[in-house]
Amino acid sequence: MKFTFLGTGTSAGVPMLGCQCPVCKSSDPRDKRWRSAAMLESATTRILIDAGPDIRMQLMPLEFKKPDAVLLTHIHYDHVGGIDDLRGFCALGSLDIYANGDTTSGLRQTMPYCFAEHLYPGVPLLNLHTIRPHQTFSVGDIEVTPIEVMHYQLPILGYRFGRLAYITDMKTIADAELPYLEGIETLVVNALRFEGEHMAHMLVGEAINFSRRIGARRTFFTHLTHQIGFHDDANSRLPEGFQFAYDGLTLEY
Prior knowledge:
By secondary structure, this protein is an alpha/beta fold. 14% of the residues lie in helices and 27% in strands. The strands form 2 sheets. A 7-stranded mixed beta sheet has the order 6-5-4-3-2-1-14. The N and C termini lie close together (6 Å).
């Protein structure tokens, strides 16, 4: 299985519009972060996770191949704002979108033209599937288990794929969810920045503690702000087994 980070930035991306800080002006490509998204692939199946406003440029360098599924974590714009840009794949058939009820309902409100009785030519063809935590389903040869986490007071979804879990925008998780993460070896999780407080996102220290709590062997941080610092400097501050992901990083597992 191959897991690719298409984007590792937070809602503002890096560089952030109007910012002149050293990180935003860095020439290191690992310091340039599209909004968070990822791709999971087996030999026969392709799954896209989230489709934010940068998704067109994130997918452009990849082989043109229709995803077998698009998994959405939640309805916030930085995770769904590029769904219309997936319309090119619809020349190969409609897209299957999997998300919780809040997200599928939200898409019907924000993209009503995709669900009208009479669709005009070229509109994205979307099949919405409402999924629930803990109810495992299969996409091709990949098993997917949704896990519920809290983005402040908003319940959102993380996803487990065998020994890998992908969680973004989490602040807290209920104890009842932890058994569904037993045996995870590779954890991808959000870690907004090192210092300060945030009501809706974990910081680096919180993310480290969470990873250790579930016993992940290796952990990659995503959904990062420019306040993380330069990539190499930031990684040097992490304990063994932890690292900051960057756009284009591919994991084999």
